Amino acid sequence: MRSGTLRSTAYDDVPYTRGGAVDRTEVGALVGSAVDGDAAAWKALVEGMSPLVWSVVRAHRLSDADGHEVYQTTWFRFAQHLGRLREPDKAGSWLASTARHECLKVLKGLTRLTLTDDPQVLDRASEERTPEQTLIDAEEEADQAERIRRLWQEFEALGERCRQLLRVLIASPPPSYLEVSAALGIAVGSIGPLRQRCLRRLRARLDARGAA
What we know:
The protein is an all-alpha fold. Helices cover 65% and strands 0% of the residues. It is built from 9 helices and no strands. Helix 1 crosses helix 2. The chain is elongated and about 55 Å long.
């Protein structure tokens, strides 16, 4: 049985900027080259579009194992359909839509929420730093850590739709609205207004706490 969703997962350590950025105007050409067996083109696609795939996974808050499974499955499906894409220049939308579909499949299969008191899950960063390093850096990082903590605390208090949208939008390079639409099932014309409303809500919550 799969594990339940966790508020913090190991793939959160994967940066939103991963590998080299790919120019969206070059995607179609890269797909064509990859179909012809160009390994460099395939590598450029994976490195350039991985942030988009990870942002969709993050938006659905899967467990560590499920998140990595969705990531791998999405690229496997992409490789399978590479030569049959009707619009190669919109490969990002295809990846986002496929990642969303795989995430929803995983979530549908979850039958229970598994809680854990495993300290390695609750505090992964602690095992990466020695006590000495923590003491040395604590004073310098305290203020910044507190601001970040408040930001994410208020972020988690937003509605689910806002959290999903903002998680996808902060991928680097920024996804197109067509890719966001495919990732979250939101009409393209609704993305901009919804983004603004979500950011206003987040700013208002931060201002109310004096955390902005």
